[in-house]
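Internal tracking record. Fields below are filled automatically when a chain is submitted to the structure queue. Please do not edit lines marked as system-generated. If the sequence contains nonstandard residues, flag them in the REMARKS field before resubmitting.
Queue: standard
Priority: normal
Entity type: single polypeptide chain
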Amino acid sequence: MSCNRAIITVVNSIGPTNMPLNEFVLYRAKHFSTEEHRILVLGPTNLTFIDEHKKEWGEINVRVTYCRASYLRLRRALNEMLVGYEEQGTRPIIHLHQPRSGMAVQLLNLLFVRRVPTLFTVHSSFGR
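SYSTEM-GENERATED OUTPUT FOLLOWS
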């Protein structure tokens, strides 16, 4: 799909009650179908709930990339996305939600001189 804007949402993990997924990504995918929506997940997650969301919302324009708790995979996936968007002429925006994955992406942007607009939404963050 060719679009003018892509939003890459970066999170530590996602699940059925995850606020970044439900209140940001799925909402925007439903209301702004001409944008490309990506979720870049640093940590492990269960994939079955994604199918449930598709039943509820219908076909949605959201692609999820899992890095399996690897910062190297995070770097590789982010770089592939950004290079692909540059080739397509699509303007990406990176939306960060959680401290661990967010700081990793910010450092990668600085280290690799990516001038990608970044938004960091601050939430309460509690360790388990």
